[in-house]
Amino acid sequence: MTPVYVAALVAVLIDGVLVPSAPPAMLVGGHVIVPVELVARFASSVEVRGRIVTARREDATCTARSLTLGDPVLVELTPLARCLGAHVAWDGRAKMLSLAFGSTVTIKTLPSYLPLAPQSSPDAVFTPQPAPPTPRPTALGSPRPRRTAIPVAPSWPVASTAPNP
Description:
There is one protein chain. It contains two helices and eleven strands. By secondary structure, the protein is mostly beta strands. It has a domain at 8-101. Strands 1-4-5-9 form a four-stranded antiparallel beta sheet. Strands 3-2-11-10 form a four-stranded mixed beta sheet, covered by helices on one side. A hairpin with a 2-residue loop joins strand 4 (26-28) and strand 5. The protein starts with 7 loop residues before the first strand and ends in a 64-residue tail after the last strand.
């Protein structure tokens, strides 16, 4: 019988900032698995060739083996982050992996999911407009009669006043 692993979602913090990813970081078999795009957010460059992922940050160059061949490319985060100079801390109760770098880290933002989607400037403020109320049907005329029968005799035992034969 082969073991079955259940993936739990993991929050990843880089220098105290929550960094989301798509697909989200997962805990599989005791290892935090992330898409390579999350590594690219704190590394200066990431290169994928086949199943080998090479990440560079400052003067460190690290390689890791991809866990998938398709898209998205998934890698194990902890050894790669340690190789790139991060101090790694795990909070098992909160399912949170914290990465702390000794130097300043610029966390790059992800590009929009749809490249043709309209982009908003950082100064723009989106204010939603309230929707009109939903029309509700109203019943006109006299109320409908009750359809359940009202019992004439009580459903509980009542002391009888009639003589027993």
